[in-house]
Amino acid sequence: GQTMPKVIPEYKTAAKTKIIEAARKVFAQKGYHDTTMDDIAKEIGVSKSALYSYFKSKEDLLKELSLQNHQTLRDIINTACKSRDLTQSLEEVYIEITEKYGGNMHINFEIIALAAHDSKTKKIIMEDYRRDIDTVQTFLEDQMKHGTMRTDVNARALAELFTSLYMGTMAKLILGFDSKEVHDNWIESMLLILGKTKPN
Description:
mainly alpha
């Protein structure tokens, strides 16, 4: 008789993606701590054991989500930064982060809280954070090279500032600060960091 094929890798990737998206949705609705693997299984309509064959735990799911979030952030920065117009780039980054990425902002903070008690997660997140800063640094060095921004400062230090501002901006949005105010502060602070004056 015919033997069943082993799991097809592409199918496995698709299944993982589906699970991660469901987790994202449920985490956003219920918060990480109140979400169970059962909730995520129900969201997709599969058994809990099916989930466990892809992810060992809720923590594993959160780590995977975080890795994806950071990758998304790097993609957003890289795409936006193809534009030579700095204000335009900053505007694009902001829109991408708040609109396309909106429901996931809190996940970054949940995972930092989780990492505080878990050295393995801490290591993963630290590496990811460093990669984010590297991405921003590369972008800034590119801008400096093309004369589109100030060159009197260290690109690494600016990248650190940029990343901190990003985290602060996300915190304010999660807390429900006035979104126009948060947006304007983001643009103004960024331009300040980059040594630009306010756009007219």
